[in-house]
Amino acid sequence: xxxxxxxxxxxxxxxxxxxxxxxxxxxxxxxxxxxxxxxxxxxxxxxxxxxxxxxxxxxxxxxxxxxxxxxxxxxxxxxxxxxxxxxxxxxxxxxxxxxxxxxxxxxxxxxxxxxxxxxxxxxxxxxxxxxxxxxxxxxxxxxxxxxxxxxxxxxxxxxxxxxxxxxxxxxxxxxxxxxxxxxxxxxxxxxxxxxxxxxxxxxxxxxxxxxxxxxxxxxxxxxxxxxxxxxxxxxxxxxxxxxxxxxxxxxxxxxxxxxxxxxxxxxxxxxxxxxxxxxxxxxxxxxxxxxxxxxxxxxxxxxxxxxxxxxxxxxxxxxxxxxxxxxxxxxxxxxxxxxxxxxxxxxxxxxxxxxxxxxxxxxxxxxxxxxxxxxxxxxxxxxxxxxxxxxxxxxxxxxx
Length: 400
Ligand code: ADP
Prior knowledge:
14 strands; alpha/beta; six-stranded mixed beta sheet
């Protein structure tokens, strides 16, 4: 079965075509800068590459371009669109309604629409992607995979905020958590690497990309996570604050900031970018810090300190930790960041081997010392594969 995986963002659609159940990637690509003059599609299929440039007005057009590329004689992967039996969509917010991936029907679309006010930066774009795929591939099964679903097992004591209870009853204000597909993928993979059952492992999963989050996974199930009602809470991110005193917002409102400005400040202008004043990209900050830029160094230090603090918190939440797992662009590729986070955590049973850590860049393996109580694993995430597997399982009726 051919499964097309779609990740639709505000100005881009990323996609991968899988042959299931083998999970072979037949083609992958993206359309970037949708809505701008110079939009661009890039696709790779084996050793063939295909690029197309020009104005792409909206997600419908982008989807048409993707499907055209997939069946193209030059660099395409399939002969006919009828071969695409199913489409798996990444959807960011599933509220309390979705505890797993699900076949999309009108009721599911209505729910995803309802959760747009909880994830205004993500859900509307995910929806546009779903609608475009339904128009262009009307005979394919469409499946939604929610970033929130893996965290549906978090207990009340961890998901409730200490706000008046009526706010939960009226607006469902609570912790939901995100990056669930990634946390689940690396938690399952960690169990395999440790030769343990998927519901036997206790792991702390650390996803460090542009967005950053952590999860405490007890016996294979998420029991706490750092992101909250929205992806703003928790770790320091590329441009997001993570945790801070909410009274800062009242203070700034008193100084004349309106809601829109505060939203932009917290989501787009803070984090690594806000502290350094130069970049949200960890690679740039590493270079700047090496050249003596003290604010870039401070941004890296605060970023790592926050992760370290959460590792301590989650070690207290879990009854013993089998592994700490690093993933995401930074977690997979930056031995410096991993070393800074884990240095001096031997009292928690976490001991990184400097040589193994230095050698683990973009690959999978254990970087802890032989005597470390917990393994320290680096596992490149693969959310697309997880979505393809969920989609296949639901459509073929082989769900576990
Ligand atoms: P997204 O959340 O958008 O999927 P990624 O998971 O690709 O993002 O992560 C992007 C982050 O990973 C950026 O901060 C980037 O600088 C960082 N990154 C990628 N490669 C490296 C590297 N070799 N060293 C340090 N940071 C890296």
